[in-house]
Amino acid sequence: MAALQIPSDIAFTKEVKAIQARKGSRDGYAQMEEKGGWSVDIDDQLASFIAEQRSVFLATVSSDGAPYIQHRGGPPGFLKVLDARTLGFADFKGNRQFITQGNLVENNKAHLFLIDYVHRRRVKIWGRARIIEDDPELIERLMPENYKARPEQALLFDVDAWDVNCPQHIPQRFEAEDVERALAARDARIAALEAELASLRQPPPTEG
Question: Which end of the chain, N or C, is less packed with Cβ atoms under 10 Å?
Fold first, then answer.
């Protein structure tokens, strides 16, 4: 693969650009490329978005080109911003197939896909990932506080480029705990109003 000239070249290969030209979108993306292409550093807006996420999809590929997508989840903030170009998370014990880890031994290129169904936003992040097995301090640093899971190792992700997709066709969905919290607040408000109404309906005390 030729050296990247701008960050978006990580996805916009010459084959991709040829298809964009044939289907009429190349001029628009060329204008974006003139401004430097996609972002590289993790800015405050992306960091805030990452801190809200409860899940992420991690894509890797074997040396033979077989793709694999794995889901990773946890409480908000389980995926941590370590610096302007590095993300990380504690890798919990699971089914122990180790497909992702094996792929990264062969090919460290990886991709993170984050989607926020509530606000209908999605972010794509290209980079390189590595598994850290023998650093208990790092694993403890990445482990979400008071989260009931057993960390086995850590995954660090070096960001090469990232892009924000439009919200088109993203279904709006809500987390169960957010819905429960909203319903509890509604029920409490209804109870308070009913109590207030009942007190207003009480006849005034009679004078003796």
Answer: C
